[in-house]
Amino acid sequence: MRESRRSPLKSAVPSNIVSPVRCCSRTACGRPAVATLTYVYADSTAVLGPLATYAEPHCYDLCAEHSERLTAPRGWEVVRLSDPSAPARPSGDDLEALANAVREAARPHDRSADSRGPRTADPMEVARRGHLRVLRSPDS
Fold first, then answer.
1. CA-to-CA distance for 35 and 49, rounded, in angstroms?
2. In this predicted model, what pLDDT tens digit does every residue of 76-89 receive, in sequence order?
3. Chain centroid, CA 22 distance in Å
């Protein structure tokens, strides 16, 4: 009896039906999926999170565009879980803090006032440089 030299995978019939890349579940959208949508009917909540490890029958895979535009039915809440591997987007607080730091750095200040030592208004302050302060320990 002669043994086959082909591996089991090579002898399998090729299929165009199953793709190794999961696509968006929305009708007529062929873009690759980046998020998974699950409905929690008991809580009237739609949960949108990172792409699940494997496809579940009651979950929906969505592309980036459809996941950003997702809305829930009236009376439902959408919970968006963040992907820890994705780069974080700057929040309004981050941008405001950056703008304040730039304004403080651009503001002209008197260098002789920094070298005078502690101010009388705040006895805990030892030195100041721009928006940063060096404070004395309350015990000393």
1. 6
2. 999 998 766 666 66
3. 21
